[in-house]
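Sequence and structure are kept together here, with a separate record for every protein. An example record follows, reproduced without changes.
>
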Amino acid sequence: MIRVLLKQKLDEKSFKDRRRITLSEVCETTGISRATLNRIANVPGYKTNTDIISALCKYFECMPGDLLQHHPEEIREQK
């Protein structure tokens, strides 16, 4: 399973910028809908597309590998 580390990146950016970053701010800046951001943040294994990953990478100023995490053991557990 691939997990999007949205909550972790929000925490890191909040700490770095010394202010609270909300999903609403990410939504407004990236153009990604609030519903999609909520699903990415709260639904394990939520499937998204490369356009959304690209927009999040641009917002967080990171590479896809910094935003995505592979969990092969979770794939076996779901079968």
Observations:
- The mean pLDDT is 90.
- DSSP finds six helices and two strands in the chain.
